[in-house]
Amino acid sequence: MSLPSSLSRRSLGLLALLPLTVMLASCNKKADANGGPVLVVQESADIPTLDPGTSYDTGSGQIVENIYETLVTYKGSSLSQLQPMLATEWRVSNGGKTYTFTLRDGVKFHSGNDFKCADAEYTFRRNLVTNTSQSGNWFLSESLLGTGANANDDKSITWQKIAGAVRCDGETLVFTLPQGDPAFLSKLAYPGQSVVDSAHAKKIGEWDGTEATWKAAVGKDLTGSPLSNDPSGTGAYRLAGRDATSLRAQAFGDYWGEKPKIPNVLIQKVSELAARQQAFLKGDADIIEAGTRANIESALKGKPGVAVLDDLPDVSAFGIFMNQSIKGGQLGSGKLDGKGIPANFFSDADVRRGFVSAFDVPTYVAQVQGGQGQPRNFLLPESFPGYNPDIAPAEFDLGAARAAFQKAWGGELWKSGFVVNATYRAGSVGAQTGMELLKKNIESLNPKFKVNLQAKEWSRILDDADKGREILIMTGWAPDYADPDNFVNTMYSSTGFYHPRANFVDPQIDGWIAEARSTDDASKRNELYGNIARRALEQAYYIVMPSNPGILAYNDKLTGISKDDFNPMLSFPAGARWKDLSKS
């Protein structure tokens, strides 16, 4: 899942302090009129979409996972154990190629429609058909159709394949895979595979689900779709209202499961960290995007009404991406003349090595992460199989950076200089600090080197990065499912989801990834991932950010938040669903 470059792994945006105060008062009064307490969350960027079929960032995911539901979900804090949700049981047959699901009775959508097998069939077929570039449907298509991340370019996909891959046998849902995939069940727990209300979707103008119209829906942008504006899920909460600065949700009265303990939820866009902290300390917000660990420890920890959960598992991976084939974007002169850069600027390995060596990981850990975390050698969390701690990570070394830059582009770079534009997410203290460190060190090496920094909204970064327009960005990945392939294929494969952000092709790495995906031998897979890590370090494909143990500050009136219950596979920062929280 695509992550904003933020310590808190969230994404929301801009609000002035005075309107915030007014909105807080009015929204809380309205919520109280609807009955019971309000869970108030403040974050710094926008929510790109509420359509599960295209949600692929944590800001959208935290809403989707609470207003919609999947067939299966993670059990407690486990990353590997699954339990029923909209399915009550399942069985695997035919050598791991057939999955049969018994579905839950007595479930209603927010529209009032009954949940039926036809809804699940429509949902998964819609995901396979649209398979937008900003969605997790590439790994669904990979399992069910045998495609890669860019499945919409695969001419072998037919309606017959899609219809045969997922179908209803009465009220039983059947998936048929072309080959076994041991990660398939975990993929179904991803929030983007939540079941939508097919009758409601068709009524408001979504794809009609038929063979006659499927080709016209292929790759369709669903970000602002009718379903994003008017969602209908089976989740414990329903959308109550949304505008440019807030989202409100209310408990769904006909929810099939245990009723939520907090009846109202308010998500707010608040750009300024100081404004979020002020609201939090006053008790006007229960959870905020709190900035860096240093911000939490200096401004929040130990204050009245504040509880802190520390040393949370870090299952995400962050890096600074150096685009080797920039599609448009702000290139300045577009030449290696000291006034800009060519589109293939980062295709020179010595340019990349210079940038990698110029990034000061120890200072970043000290300033942004409060001294917590360690350098990494790979864009893969240490808690996942395949990470080899014996491989030395890249080191901060300005001497090595200077030597690399002097060799780059046959020595021309050092003589001419460059102007490069780097982007960070507006409101992200961690991303801004990291980019400022990089800028300072790069510019210190040669007065002809210039790094311009630009803050952008998260939704704009997502769109520009997907189109290959971002030049130098910090972003990251949270696992869609608990397997190292979800990181390695995503980040390093020439057909991976993140390929447009880095635009490199390494046949040797591609071969190792393919081999790792075709074997169940854990030791062999670990060996292959070690090979990939070494090769990627030598080629300096990314500036790999350090590990970052999580820390969460929250209102001490909230209960249901603990290490034992915290599941990092959930997008909501508390590692829980809203319905499992209570507020005194």
TrEMBL record:
PROSITE patterns for the chain: SBP_BACTERIAL_5
UniProt-listed Pfam families: SBP_bac_5
InterPro entries: Peptide/Ni-bd, SBP_5, SBP_5_CS, SBP_5_dom
Coiled-coil intervals, chain numbering: none
Region forming the signal peptide: 1-31
Keywords: Signal
GO biological process: peptide transport
UniProt keyword Signal, yes or no: yes
GO cellular component: ATP-binding cassette (ABC) transporter complex; periplasmic space
Domain spans labelled Solute-binding protein family: 82-497
One Gene Ontology term of the molecular function aspect: peptide transmembrane transporter activity
UniProt similarity note: Belongs to the bacterial solute-binding protein 5 family.
Name by which UniProt lists this protein: Peptide/nickel transport system substrate-binding protein
